[in-house]
Amino acid sequence: MKFETIWQKPRPLSTRKTGQILREAAHSLMGRMASEVAERALIEMIGDARFILMGEASHGTHEFYEFRVRFTQRLLKQKGFRILAVEADSPDMQRVDSFAGGCTGDSTAEDALGGFSRFPRWMWRNEVIKEFIQWMRSFNLRPENAGSPAHLYGLDLYSLHASMDAVVRFLEKTDPSAARRAKARYACFDSFGASPQLYGLAAKQGLGSCESAVIEQLVELQKTSAELHCEEAFLAKENARVVKNAEAYYRALFDEDTIAWNLRDQHMTETLESIVEHHGDSKAIVWAHNSHLGDARATEMADRGEWNVGQLMRQRYGDDCFTLGFSTYSGTVTAARDWDQPPERRHVRPALAGSYEALLHIVGGNFWLNLHPDQPVEELLKEPRLERAIGVIYRPESERGSHYFYSVLPDQFDAIVHFDYTRALDPLDRNAKWDRGELPETYPSAL
Questions:
Q1: d(CA 53, CA 71)
Q2: 421, exposed or middle or buried, with CB in 10 Å at 0-12, 13-18, 19+?
Q3: pLDDT value at position 45?
Q4: Rounded mean pLDDT of the chain?
Q5: 299 and 198 in one domain?
Q6: Which H helix or E strand runs over 161?
């Protein structure tokens, strides 16, 4: 589907008729009792799916995080899920998993989140996640869960240097001579400093490549630790694979012939599959942005030759993969003005006319919708419309160009959770700018 050729303007809809269809299909999340009924209905819809992919329309919205936590707790308790894989770096999440498993080391959940020290820290160092990690520790320490604890894993590949360190630490304990070989191979990166982007640029300019070194290290580790089935050996091999794929990713950032996005989402998909295989083909929950988990074939991404985790998982697992998207109409969000800038509590503008968010706003309140083809709402939402995505940066001054893309929502997700008005996620590392918040756009007249 070529969105730029078919999209002109959404056909006019009768607001009254549209509202009636949406309200009849909506599972209300307003109030404790209604939410209980609605979440039970969503559990029933999921059925026996092995993979539950839960998105978010921003990286800084309290309601998205809160719902994912609450629903994940249901899946852990009621459906036997034991893996939560998230859009985060593997070494940082390993530390969190150790705490959640009841191991010694960090004394509090906040301490366990201390590995998340680089931008954007608030994605994981926030109040909702802190409470969830503490809950997971309590869950895992219950006698009935002793033989089947829940685990947390990071899926991302940004941890080039941290993952190299993790590989070397493992080998120093198990095979000192192999550790020396690993150090020698990874020393290839030393001349490029701490910035992996600098390495990618230098490699593009022909000033050196570490590709063969990282591949050699991964192959050796896979061979020598093939007989080791412990968690520590598995994590070491995963970190070696992170290094190999991160090296390719940072080179791809400066290569016009390679789509770096595809390398990243391919890595996240392969990591998820590796984790599930390691746990005996267990079931897994995934948390990441909508742009990673909604089927890319139903969005403008396909026009650019991009795929994502949601597409790859649907293609491989079909109905065993359930995708849940999120949206909001307006409110506040924790986001930065630019990369590596401090987080701010920013106003989210009301959704653009003609967007899915504006259409769902007709219902008002909070609810979820079944988007499967046998539902009346599926036909209503089938026409391509704008959809909003806010990452760690929010630029309301260029909202249309920076945060909207075309999609066909029922082809993108199995269900959508909509919160009409949302609030900013509370970071653990708050600053005066975040506390002060953003002045209204109408200040000082309030008109």
A1: 12
A2: middle
A3: 97
A4: 93
A5: no
A6: helix 160-174
